[in-house]
Amino acid sequence: MTNEHETAPEPEHEAAHETAQGERPSLVSTMTLVADVEGWMSPGQGATLYDAATTCPDGGLIVEIGSFRGRSTIVLATAADPSVRIVAIDPHAGNDRGPQEIEGFSDEAADDHAVFTANLTRAGVRDRVDHIREFSDAALDLVDGEPDVLYIDGAHRYGPALADIRSWGDRVGDGGTMLIHDSFSSIGVTLAILRSLLFGTRFRYVGRSRSMAIYRADLAGDPAARTRNAGRQLAQLPWFVKNVVLKVLISLKLVKGEWPY
């Protein structure tokens, strides 16, 4: 798993598989469930989601913003203890579906919702997931409790990304985990992170699996800890610049390659 991480997460992630495999499906079997589910999630990112879900406390709450067709949702719902509540927030409005797909289309919206439901049913987790078909800001008042795990993969434009990090991040309980997809890859998401988390007082940057950044709500309050935290995030900017250049070249059809995520 760690070869996918440009910045390796904390050792507790490695141990999660050993403690959980006897109680719930293993990482390997979980990833097999989503092998044919469309979405942007690398094997390392799937392992990061799996680890976050397995370490969510019994009776806890996992909130996902942006589910698309259920690839990440299935991993979270499969890995978490049965007592954990799983909330998936996605309006399935046809917009923000993937790279350069911003505008909404009714046909795609209906198809995404139908495929999402079918994929969860096929994976055997449909009854485990509370799907809120609303935009993330409208869903704020529809979810009770403090998320122990928050996964943000919604709209990647600066405004919505900043709102998700701030409004939903404020809901995360002390010591909880916040995962943000397309960090240091998408311009909008990266700017939102720099604005809200670079010199923040609560979330500690742990590491990332490609563009999936891991934050923990346990940042020490002293200036030295905050400075180190900012430095670790700033160290990701060269990788961000590389991703932006690659996206431009792919968009201009000057090179062929996988869209960075």
Which terms would index this structure?
261 residues, Rossmann fold, 7-stranded mixed beta sheet, 10 helices, globular
Kindly, what is the distance between the CA atoms of the first and last residues, rounded to a whole number of angstroms? 16 Å
Shape: globular
Number of helices: 10
CATH-defined fold name: Rossmann fold
Tell how many strands the DSSP assignment holds.
7
**Overall structural domain count:** 1
Architecture overview:
The protein is an alpha/beta fold and 261 residues long. It has a single domain, classed as Rossmann fold (3-Layer(aba) Sandwich). 41% of the residues lie in helices and 13% in strands. The protein is built from ten helices and seven strands. The radius of gyration is 17 Å and the shape is globular.
What's the layout of helices and strands?
Blueprint: H1 12-20, H2 27-33, H3 43-54, E1 61-65, H4 71-79, E2 85-89, H5 106-123, E3 129-132, H6 136-139, E4 149-152, H7 158-169, E5 177-180, H8 187-196, E6 204-209, E7 212-216, H9 223-234, H10 237-251
Parallel strand pairs: 1-2, 1-4, 2-3, 4-5
Antiparallel strand pairs: 5-7, 6-7
Helix pairs in contact: 1-3, 2-4, 3-4, 7-8
